[in-house]
Amino acid sequence: MDCLHFTSGACRSCALMGTPHAEQVAAKERAVRELLPGTIDWLPSVTGPESGFRNKAKMVVSGSVESPVLGILDRSGAGVDLRDCGLYPPELSDSFGPLARFVALAGLTPYDVRRRRGELKYLLITLAPDGALMVRFVLRSTEAVLRIRKHLPTLLQWLPRAAVVSVNLQPEHKAVLEGERELLLHGESLTMRVNDLDLHLRPQSFFQTNTDVAAALYRQVRDWVDDAGPGEVWDLYCGVGGFALHCAAPGRRLIGVEVSPEAVASARRSAEPLPGELAFVAADATRWALDRDDTADVVVVNPPRRGIGTDLAGWLESSAVPTVVYSSCNATTLARDLASMPSLRPQRARLLDMFPQTEHYEVAVLLQRT
């Protein structure tokens, strides 16, 4: 994959740009295997397209009302337009032009980071497999909300596939993408069809950036869980419930735990047509597990980059849980967590190239008690 933004130095987000994709994957494999030594059955890595794979765009809005720039900010604070970035599929990049026109129509002043003036900070757009879109305007205040509402019919005319439109309020001047308050203007959730399952994403719900590779990750975890034949499964850091929902089966009890109430609401809606007993709880995963008097047959963990931490790792080590499936986006913290629970030994592992052109990845590991 070639990119003029990278070669010109305007954008360096894709640190591995120019390296053949096969070499990128091989380097990631070596790095992860070095961090996870021992006798592990490594399955072939999962890869997908090296371009056009992103299902979401997080566009900084700069420039002016009349000529907004959608992309990133360079070191000087000037906007770099990335509407032609090759990581986005056409169904996603085709929305950028109408959204830029809407910024002008609704008079949404781009936020000036240096002067701390303006209203519109980001445009967050998510693409579903069927082409439907979720559009979120991240604003500093409610000042422009009435104008967005007024011109919303025009936006829906320009973007007929917009299933959800919302405003997120982020009043603070700091490097935090979004705030806690969300105002729904149109629709409620975006339906992501993954492996014959409908996952319903509400605006503040997390979903993996690469739909095809995420589908492969869900299938791998489901297969390992099914092989264990559990009666009860806990999915900690469950997000919108992707792992738990894929593992649903008659006679099986699943509990998903996630700190985000919006993600839990998404998971509960997605669970309605599925077999088995599924429950989703809005709580801190570590605190919830430590407060339980019982254990599960299988525990699935999918933490953020910081890992599960010593408290949860210590609980798993001292528990009677026979099988743990750990999905990680950071093998360094994964290795640290594994060192805290030596009774749970890695048996099988698989790298999934979730983020081509970068050093990032996802790795799934099957742990069994010895």
Provide structural commentary:
With 370 residues, the protein is α/β, with parallel strands linked by helices. The protein has two domains: 4-50 and 209-369, Vaccinia Virus protein VP39 (Rossmann fold, 3-Layer(aba) Sandwich); 56-187, Beta Barrel (OB fold (Dihydrolipoamide Acetyltransferase, E2P)), CATH 2.40.50.1070. The protein has helices at residues 4-7, 21-35, 90-93, 96-105, 145-158, 211-228, 242-246, 261-271, 285-290, 309-318, 331-339; strands at residues 41-42, 56-63, 68-73, 79-81, 120-127, 133-139, 162-169, 181-186, 190-194, 197-201, 232-236, 253-258, 277-282, 298-301, 323-328, 344-352, 362-369. The strands form three sheets. An eight-stranded mixed sheet has the order 1-16-17-15-14-11-12-13, with helices on both faces. The longest helix is centred in the middle third of the chain and has 18 residues, at 211-228.
**Name of the CATH class of the largest domain:** Alpha Beta
Radius of gyration: 21 Å
What is the structural class?
Answer: alpha/beta
Provide a count of the helices: 11
Return the string of H and E elements: HHEEEEHHEEHEEEEHEHEHEHEHEHEE
Oligomer: single chain
Mean pLDDT: 96
**CATH topology group of the largest domain:** Rossmann fold
Query: Which CATH architecture of the largest domain is right?
Result: 3-Layer(aba) Sandwich
Strand content: 25-35%
Kindly state the number of beta strands: 17
